[in-house]
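ok so heres the complex, two chains, lmk if somethin looks off
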Amino acid sequence: MSQADPGAGSPTVAIVGSGPSGCYTAQFLRKHWRDSEIVVFDRLDLPYGLVRYGVAPDHQGTKAVAKQFDRLFERDGVRFVGRTEVGTDVTLEALREAFDVVVLATGLSADRPLDGAADGLAGVYGAGTLTRLVNGHPDELVDGIELGSVVTIVGQGNVALDLVRLFLTPAADLLALGVAPEVVETLGRGPIERIEIVGRSAAPMAKFDVAMAKELSRLPDVAFLADGLELDPEDGAGAGDEARRSAIADLVAGSPEDASRTVHFRFGWSPDHVTGTDSVDGIVFRSADGRELAVRTDSVCTAIGFAEAETAPVQRTAHEGPGADIGRGILDDGLFVVGWLRRGPQGTIPANRADSKMVAETIATAVAGGDLPIGKPGFAAIAPALETPAEALPTLI
Amino acid sequence: MSKTVILYGTESGNAEMVADDLVDEISGDREVEAFDMSDFDLADFDPENYYLVVCSTHGDGELPSSARPFGEALDEEKPDLTGIRYSIFGLGDSSYETYSHGSEIIDEKLTALGATRVGEYGRHDASDGSLPNDNALAWLQGVLEPA
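and the predicted structre for the whole thing:
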């Protein structure tokens, strides 16, 4: 985007959520309007959402994007207001009255639930919960988490591979990465002897990135097995990427013979139901042609995607106005939506950067074309209502 | 008049941020312009200018998304880049075996078309979570030709 004339009127902007989509949106809007007031709200004390609490701690290169975002708050004049939940501490309506532009960037944080898993059955954990726990998210506790010695991971995306890596990384390495001692103890207590990682797709269509699979070869004392690796994608599903099949075959071929831990990839199985009375003792899968696979397991970890949390105080659909155009990020007059909350839980951080760029352009166009009148006072109008405007400068991860 | 032209290829924005810093550093002394590779027209390559190429690596050693159209255009149009001088700075993460490979793809293409790489091949390894900017500014001092 081109730099706007600094003399031109620029809007006051509130962004709800300081994860990658929110921060990239702030970045693009700041490039467009050097002098506009831009405030990023987050319900937590510390910014960066998924970058801080979702990206695995051994992926420091990916987490480094947080340092890009530090610049927003340290030198680019963007304000971070933490410990302020929009919808609870301040209403969205009040925010919209105070700011010309309000952007919802709260993401999708809830683990998509597994069909056929009884509520309250111990031993079923969502991948989002586990990665937040490993990353020290204030809402997650180790209480009640028992992985056991045989763990079944449902799903074969990058988040599932993150779990494999985190579960099998030596305790000393996790501690060195800053993972809390009680979390390291919980992950290692089994100790885990076998991980079943089960997905419904043929290997070329699986969701993981090849680089992530190759990375698993560095785990010490692990042998890899694969079932259904020869399966081809169903007709009409596309060819997928053969490199995924090769990457798994390479893991199997390169496995040490005397390893004490195994990781077993199984392709072509959809979860049917979880068994057990008080806690999980098994999980049953079905193939496309109706065969059944029963796996005995101590715990089930679901990595099958994310959804809007039912407890989120601001639900997207409740705020769609008559002029909503979700494709461009428009929810209502002066209200926009970006990132996963806009387009669903697909794509990595760079995909959300592209989304932020697109929505920032939507906003800039609306202001430039006069569709969006400006002149609202900004943060000063709501500051008195925020009891303890807990502002925190972001700290480095 | 001779310009310094920065071409960046980015995925998560780190290479763009490096380009922004390079512009800030150079702009007091000489004319400088930065382009996202996806916005750069190959017909604008000019032997009068000096090019700084900043490129990250994506996935399994692939070009980042904003460098992909540029790479494809070089392959298809095969412009004669004889007389074009450039220096290159690659971003990557040595946690992956394809560390810094994205910049190498661009480097090979430019060289094959007749362009000449000058100065040290700059690199930054993000595996420790550090930003590339300080490395890039240090590299800049080494490669920058007198104005």
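quick notes: The radius of gyration of chain A is 23 Å. thats all i got rn
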